[in-house]
Amino acid sequence: MSSITPLSTTPTSVPQLPPMISSLDGPTPEGQTQPEQRKEVATLFSPQAILGRAKPAESVCQRQLRRLGVRFDTPPPVVGPGSCGIASPVKVKSLSGGIDVVPDATLNCPMALAFAKWVKNELSGAARMRYLSGIKSIHQMSSYSCRTMNSKRGAKMSEHSKGNAIDIGKIKLNSGKTIVVKRPGFFAFREKGLLHKVRAQSCKYFTTVLGPGSDVHHRDHFHFDLRQRKTGYRHCDL
After folding, report:
1. Cis ω on the peptide bond leading into residue 103 (within 30° of 0)?
2. How far is C-alpha 24 from the geometric centre of its chain's CA atoms?
3. How far apart are CA 163 and CA 112, in angstroms?
4. Running DSSP on this structure, what letter comes out for residue 122?
5. Is the model's pLDDT at 195 over the cut of 70?
6. Of 53 and 214, the one with more pLDDT
7. How many CB atoms lie within 10 A of CB 184?
């Protein structure tokens, strides 16, 4: 009967692989001290660094903007003092039909979407009907701005401080005509008709509508915002 040779129980040496990250308790090849190395690794894997490298998925709101033909950038979150800031801002460059926004408007996405819909559904058609011309550009006077309401000391923070408002100062047509949003002259019938029409329709898209005649602070522009009130009330000065 043949004998069976027992397996050797002598441990064999296993080659050691170099560590992927050197120990924080030992010297580094570059001669860094332990505190320096800890700081370097902590910075590399900090939440800010990880968020900076990650590309967030496009939101439903952003997809709706693209379907409307809005051209926009998605800058990093806007962080301001106190309650100011926008978690997911969009910088609107142009609207449906290639209408430029001058200068670019930094808004939160729902506000940008409401503005884009108002321009497409109300302003563009009203301009063509009265002037037989498309719109070349819309000139905004304020989008995101970390300030109080009407910039008054001690007042509540404005919706502008959250990118939740936009002020429109003038509208330039492809024909070269410029419509300034202020109380038109006595004989400016077409301008009056256009501004009254689009202002009246704007309350379907925004929760606050102010403009010439509302108060001294809005004598030369439209103010639109999406302020949320507990009662669901919409403040529309028409």
Report:
1. yes
2. 41
3. 9
4. I
5. yes
6. 214
7. 18
Report helix, strand or coil for 65.
helix
**DSSP code string of 130-191:** HHS--EEEEEEEESS---BGGG-TTPPBPGGGGT-EEEEEEEEETTS-EEESS---TT-HHH
Which pTM value belongs to this model? 0.75
Dist. CA 14–CA 146, nearest whole Å: 63
| Phi, psi dihedral angles at 148 (to 5 degrees) | -85, 175
Element (H, E) at 210: strand 208-210
C-alpha neighbours within 13 Å on the C-beta side of residue 168: 26
- CA dist list (Å): 104 to 16, 90, 95, 221: 58, 10, 11, 17
**pLDDT tens column, 21-39:** 444 444 454 555 555 655 5
CA distances from 45 to 8, 48, 184, 212 (A): 46, 8, 58, 52
Structure letter (DSSP) for residue 216: G
Cβ neighbours around 160 below 10 Å, total: 23
Helical packing angle, 124-131 and 189-201, nearest 10°: 160
